[in-house]
Amino acid sequence: MRFLADENIFPAVITHLRKLDHDVVSIQEAGFSQTTDDKIVEIATKEERTIVTFDKHFGDILRYPPRNLSGIITYKNPSPFIGRYFPCLK
User: Fold this and answer.
1) What's 42's DSSP letter?
2) Helix, strand, or coil (residue 31)
3) Selected residue with higher pLDDT from 50 and 60
4) Deepest of 9, 15, 18, 45, by most Cβ within 10 A of its Cβ?
5) How many Å separate Cα 81 from the centre of its chain?
6) Distances (CA, A) of 43 to 3, 50, 51, 85
7) What's the number of domains the chain is made of?
């Protein structure tokens, strides 16, 4: 899969996804640190990437209709996710 990692995604998560042969670009690597959410969506749409984030407002389907995106993965609470799938970050 092709992912665009938001700024709040831990570098170890990005590394792990890459080890699983996913194509992952972080917002920082793309040169868009501290950019707007709309710009993140624009980049992801243009590059056909799924956004990975801990920001729950990306789940607002009225603002970001799923039909217009390649996908958004949001986590409400990063702790269980991190502990279960990335034990190296505990």
Assistant:
1) H
2) coil
3) 50
4) 9
5) 14
6) 11, 10, 10, 27
7) 1
Residue 55 to residue 21: CA distance in whole angstroms: 25
Q: How far is CA 67 from the centre of its chain?
A: 18
Quick one: 4 exposed, middle or buried, by C-beta within 10 A (0-12, 13-18, 19+)?
buried
Per-residue pLDDT at 83 = 57
- Looking at the whole model, is its pTM more than 0.70? yes
Residue 47 has pLDDT above 70, yes or no: yes
Match 């710009």 to its residue by tokens: 39
Terminal alpha carbon distance of the chain? 26
Round to whole Å and give the CA distance between 41 and 79. Answer: 25
8 Å CB contact between 25 and 18: no
Residues of the domain holding 43? 2-89
Residue 83, both tokens? 């502990």
Q: How many residues appear in the chain?
A: 90
Asked if 7 and 33 count as a contact pair (C-beta separation under 8 A), the reply is yes
